[in-house]
Every structure is written in structure tokens, then in C-alpha cells.
Amino acid sequence: MTITLITGANKGLGLQTARELLAAGHTVYLGARDAQRGQEVAASIGARPLLIDITDDASVQAAAAVVRAEEGHLDVLVNNAGIAGSGPTPRDVSGPDMVRTFDTNVFGIVRMMHAFLPLLEASTSPVVVNVSSGLGSFALTTDPDNIAAQFTLVAYSSSKAAVNMLTLQYARAFPGIRINAVDPGYTATDLNGHRGTQTVEQGAVAIVRMALIGADGPTGTLVDAAGVEPW
Fold this sequence. Notes:
By secondary structure, the protein is of the alpha/beta class.
């Protein structure tokens, strides 16, 4: 049985990913920072609820202890939890806005990797999927023909650029783990006020695909539903 943990999985892309991986036969820990909401959603789809706030070191360590006690290893980690960041315009973005955005989108992944690496290394075919964005790609955001070039989101885009670099660095440091970043595309979720042009089913395609790769799969890549994207 493949043991999978998805953060921020009580709604949106995380929830859709949980549904599809359950259908693929995974045992899924549905990570949520709201205990009641997490329990209700997990029960509705047949997942295991896991209380976890990726901005809190103690919460992340406690969640790792639960998985360690119940399973002894982790096969797939999907770092999905994230926030849009603050500041309606670049002029409005402040230092605290950046700190808050990076604390979730970037440092949250670091906390997860630090706590769960021993469990991933206990797997025979460990996989990490970091949910990023084309808005974090320098190539796409400088291409006037790409939708990513139409947005100016100082906090969010810079945090996702950092996620991309984290992915590369971790992939290089841990060659035995398949570690990739995924751009789900402009998906209608709470993150963007449901203004996205894709459904969560469409947005989850690349996430699920990369969660299902084996030991011979790619590592250190940024991909979307169509394939590999430029950094």
C-alpha cells in the first residue's frame, strides 16, 4: 500500500488530488490545519485526517510522529498548502506581507522536508511533489505570449520562484527521492477567488501524474499537464 500525505487537502487542488490518489489505491493522509474540517472532509472521501499547520514547527513534527507511529514510512509527500499573499498592488506589499507568504509557501516546505525526510527515506520508492506555479518561472513570466506574464504578484510569484529553487536543491541533495515541482495552471480555487479558467480536475492532472511516478521517474523538474516547463 502506498502511503501518501497531502498538505492543505481539505479543499481545492489538495482535495481533488486526495480523491484521485485514493482511487489509485493510495492510503491518503489528508493534511489540514482545522481539525474539525479535516476530519469531516477525510471521512467523506475515505482518507485519514492529519492535523498539521505547516507554519508551526511543533505541529509539523507532531504530524510526522503520527505517520511514523502508524506506518513507519511515507511514500509520497504532496506539498500543496499555500497562500496567495497580501497586497492588492506591488506598492502595497510590505515586509510582513512577504514574511507571511514565504512562511507558508516556502518555509512550510522546508519544515515538511525536515520532519518527513526520515520517513521518505524509509520508503522503497519515495516521491515529493511541490505544488508551484508558472508564476514562479522566470522563462514564463518574461514571455509576453504566456498568461504568467499578465500578472504582477510580488509576494506570491517570488515565493513560487523560491519553491522552484528548493525543488532543484532538494532533488540534487537527495537523488534517491523523486522530487519535482508542478504548475497546476490557472485553476479556480479559493486562492484566486475562483477566477481561474480551469476546474480542479484539470488542475490536479499534473499533480496526480507526478505523485504516481516510480523510482525511475524524473526528478528536479517543473511540469504542467502538457509536460516539462522551463524554469
